[in-house]
């Protein structure tokens, strides 16, 4: 167990023991006692940890909060590293720690290395995270880039926290949008061969379709002209979808994302799973006919409105195949939890999908949908207007090629997914402290530079067992060690709350504390005992910063 967690546990157990002693002396049933909670005070001058247990349990004991707090403190057993306990305000109890516990953190980092921060919070729970899942009708856009960064980092965090995680891309290779794609391809194909044709008004007008059909003609020539329009669209569509899916593979690999599964929507029709789920809902009385279409009674399960499963023309809707897809995740593949990352424009779909899971006998809470707000691209101080349909857009690959995947992945995880995001291209390439990813990486490179300089004069990082860590006693040193100690807790909280942005904030805070430390504390040239202790400290900082950047899928350069 990490030192920080052991201290939490010891203090909570001591609070519990104190409460139980007071309760026994007062004839109060132990079953009704609250579970003590700890928090870090905003003003650290109050202490390292605080509890409000005296206020939450004052009625149980029939005492004023401050009076109960005094009793808790007077009955508090001795706890290693707790140096003082004080009562503040109406009954807060503040704990100050002997900072020497932080030396154990450096020993943990030294022994664990890349494994420092690994947890067993998830206990092997099977989790599937589905993200990006862009229509394979064209290049991936900025929203896909943000979803990719959030989903991939969340998966890495949950793996580090002890979950079994699979990353999945859902390929929408069936349905109405794919049909429009085929019609648009046919028009571009005919135009390139000098035939009169027009892209449908609601089709795809981007130049990428022209490039695709030009490539098709180079490979296949005019062979598709002899086909009927229906067959021509099918042939062109199937060829173009495979080309686009392969490019998605390549672009996402360049972005540092490696999926475990690429799942095709069309397979749900081929396997009969769409028909199966419709039949099941029908047999259980959860459907009705209206205007020639088959509807799902979503409102019976708490959704805002019902939704169509099968259109009047007999063709299942995307909603029907999506229900089958989610049933496949839970029933056929046995995931304990499923996390989907969707654009905010799909917000209305969440309640109906959870309703469908409930109708199928699947606990709706096993499905979590993270909604992601829009991205605006800023270049030269101005916002760019973009449209996928019209073809005037910056693609995911454009962005990665322009500013590098480190910057894209880091910046897209700077804020929670439910906040709108402005991606500033100029900031992303700026080599200064204003650029967050540069600032974090520079801290790592700066430490590596110090260690290289030391090595050039015959000084290396010593074995921690040969170092007197008590030489680390300045405020800046303790602050840096406290931040290193909190890394496992950040991993755990990010996994439990599904908040990958906590890791970028952690990396920046750690970088800031290192820069502050190095402004005040020299390493090379100090008295030998101090120098050795500080070499261990900065090397520990290097390791933890590299660990955090690795979880973010961002490189930790040794030179900049």
UniProtKB/TrEMBL annotation:
Q: How does it assemble?
A: Monomer.
Domain Arginyl tRNA synthetase N-terminal, by residue range, is 9-97
* Species name: Calorimonas adulescens
Q: Name one GO biological process term.
A: arginyl-tRNA aminoacylation
Gene that this polypeptide is encoded by: argS
Q: What is this protein called?
A: Arginine--tRNA ligase
- Boundaries of each DALR anticodon binding domain copy? 440-560
Query: What's its top-level EC category?
Result: ligase
Query: GO molecular function of the protein, one example?
Result: arginine-tRNA ligase activity
According to the record, the signal peptide region is: none
Residues forming coiled coils: none
**Which keywords are on file for this protein?**
Aminoacyl-tRNA synthetase, ATP-binding, Cytoplasm, Ligase, Nucleotide-binding, Protein biosynthesis
> Which HAMAP family does this entry report, sorted A to Z?
Arg_tRNA_synth (MF_00123)
State the span of motif ('HIGH' region).
Answer: 134-144
Q: Which InterPro entries match?
A: aa-tRNA-synth_I_CS, Arg-tRNA-ligase, Arg-tRNA-synth_N, Arg-tRNA-synth_N_sf, ArgRS_core, DALR_anticod-bd, Rossmann-like_a/b/a_fold, tRNAsynth_Ia_anticodon-bd
UniProt cross-references to Pfam families, sorted A to Z: Arg_tRNA_synt_N, DALR_1, tRNA-synt_1d
A GO CC annotation recorded here is: cytoplasm
Subcellular localization is given as:
Cytoplasm
The similarity annotation says: Belongs to the class-I aminoacyl-tRNA synthetase family.
């Amino acid at each position: 167990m990490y030192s920080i967690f052991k201290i939490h546990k010891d203090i909570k157990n001591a609070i519990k023991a104190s409460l139980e002693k007071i309760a026994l002396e007062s004839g109060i049933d132990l079953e009704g006692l609250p579970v003590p909670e700890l928090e870090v005070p905003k003003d650290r001058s109050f202490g390292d940890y605080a509890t409000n247990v005296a206020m939450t349990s004052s009625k149980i004991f029939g005492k004023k909060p401050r009076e109960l707090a005094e009793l808790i403190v007077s009955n508090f057993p001795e706890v290693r590293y707790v140096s003082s306990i004080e009562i503040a305000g109406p009954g807060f109890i503040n704990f100050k720690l002997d900072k020497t516990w932080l030396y154990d953190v450096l020993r943990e980092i030294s022994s664990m290395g890349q494994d420092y921060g690994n947890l067993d919070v998830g206990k092997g729970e099977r989790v599937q995270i589905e993200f990006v899942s862009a229509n394979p009708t064209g290049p991936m856009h900025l929203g896909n880039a943000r979803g990719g960064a959030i989903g991939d980092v969340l998966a890495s965090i949950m793996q580090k926290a002890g979950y079994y995680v699979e990353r999945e891309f859902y390929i929408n290779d069936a349905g109405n949008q794919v049909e429009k794609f085929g019609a648009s391809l046919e028009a571009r194909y005919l135009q390139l061969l000098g035939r009169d044709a027009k892209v449908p008004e609601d089709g795809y007008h981007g130049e990428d379709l022209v490039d695709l059909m030009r490539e098709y003609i180079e490979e296949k020539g005019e062979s598709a002209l002899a086909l009927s329009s229906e067959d021509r669209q099918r042939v062109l569509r199937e060829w173009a979808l495979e080309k686009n899916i392969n490019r998605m593979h390549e672009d996402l690999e360049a972005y540092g994302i490696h999926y475990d599964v690429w799942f095709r929507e069309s397979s749900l029709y081929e396997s009969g799973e769409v028909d199966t789920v419709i039949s099941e809902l029908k047999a259980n009385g959860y459907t009705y006919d209206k205007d020639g279409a088959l509807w799902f009674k979503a409102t019976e399960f708490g959704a805002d409105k019902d939704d169509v499963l099968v259109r009047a023309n007999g063709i299942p809707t995307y909603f029907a195949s999506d229900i089958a897809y989610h049933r496949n995740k839970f029933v056929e593949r046995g995931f304990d939890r499923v996390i989907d990352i969707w654009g905010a424009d799909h917000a209305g779909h969440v309640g109906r999908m959870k309703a469908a899971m409930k109708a199928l006998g699947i606990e709706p809470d096993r499905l979590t949908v993270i909604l992601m707000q829009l991205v605006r691209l800023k270049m030269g101080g101005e916002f760019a207007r973009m449209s996928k349909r019209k073809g005037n857009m910056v693609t995911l690959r454009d962005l990665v090629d322009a500013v590098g995947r480190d910057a894209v992945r880091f910046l897209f995880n700077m804020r929670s997914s439910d906040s709108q995001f402005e991606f500033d291209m100029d900031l992303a390439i700026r080599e200064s402290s204003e650029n967050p990813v540069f600032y974090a990486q520079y801290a790592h490179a700066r430490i590596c530079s110090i260690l290289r300089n030391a090595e050039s004069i015959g000084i290396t990082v010593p074995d921690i067992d040969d170092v007197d860590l008590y030489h680390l006693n300045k405020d800046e040193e303790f602050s840096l060690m406290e931040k290193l100690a909190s890394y496992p807790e950040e991993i755990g909280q990010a996994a439990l709350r599904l908040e990958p942005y906590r890791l970028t904030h952690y990396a920046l805070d750690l970088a800031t504390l290192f820069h502050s430390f190095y402004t005040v504390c020299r390493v090379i040239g100090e008295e030998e005992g101090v120098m050795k202790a500080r070499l261990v400290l900065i090397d520990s900082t290097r390791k933890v910063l590299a660990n955090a950047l690795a979880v973010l899928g961002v490189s930790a350069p040794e030179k900049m």
